[in-house]
Amino acid sequence: MTRFKISTLAVLTLAAAQPALAQDPETCMTVRFSDPGWTDISATNGVAATLLEALGYTADIPTLSVPVGYEALKNGQTDLFLGNWMPAQQEFRTDLDAAGTVVELVQNLEGAKFTLAVNKAGAEAGVADFADLDARKDEFDGKIFGIEPGAPANQSIQAMIEADDFGLGDWTLVESGEQAMMAQVRRNDAAGMPTVFLAWAPHPMNEAVEITYLSGGDAQFGPNYGGASVHTLARKEWVETCPNVAKLFSQLVFDVPMENVLMGKILDDGMAAQEAASEWLADNPAALDAWLDGVTTLDGQPGLAAVRAAIDG
């Protein structure tokens, strides 16, 4: 265990041992954490912001691309990031670990996956593996649909194209945001056009489109169809200064079914992230017990009671 992880553990253990009226200083009121524009992170950020506001804190959540978000965390412009997908973002983690100013608070999701997939027409064309794609290039129009520019997954796809892996050297990566990508996939799906795109779980796309995740991409996305976990990172100095709210984030963990529901509310029902979070929390109040164990409001009052009162309205 590294010195920084030991320090973080000590801080959080100390926070757990504090009496009920121990509280963070007023300087901790505003909690800054970025959103890369991915619905799964918007959903979890929405849950976090809802809890923070009920506890007397303020959430400041700028939308920053993945590379910019990591730089902001490294340089102290933000305090937290709930969207460290591993191993896809290992390069960024390595950089942060070398800087020594950021620590991991918790693995907030397991059972995620992230790799290339095809729609129903793509599967019916006989594509089940990365190696099947190039023989069907014309049917796919030679395009791989990705997410926003600068995302590590896009970089992996571009590197694969540049290296001519699987004979894909003359294919094109089409970069766009998550929602624009899925709109294109839905259009192609309705037209019966084979389509290959970045797909992942949790995400309501798994319900909206018949998806076949492709095997063979272990070198690009990792084994088990890009099997992934998501982690919460925080500035070491912020954890030490704001142990109460840091304790909240060290206990804030999610699961795939929960995130699928939240993301569906946002993408399909048009809810804002905090609106979706409030509705989900009202329907699932038991989740609060573990999240808020030993956590107080900013002014030192019992946190669980405050959040329940805010959700009950």
TrEMBL record:
The gene is choX. SUPFAM superfamilies: Periplasmic binding protein-like II (SSF53850). Keywords: Signal. This is Choline ABC transporter substrate-binding protein. InterPro entries: ABC_choline_sub-bd, ABC_Gly_betaine_transp_sub-bd. It holds the Pfam family OpuAC. Residues 1-22 form the signal peptide. Residues 30-282 form the ABC-type glycine betaine transport system substrate-binding domain.
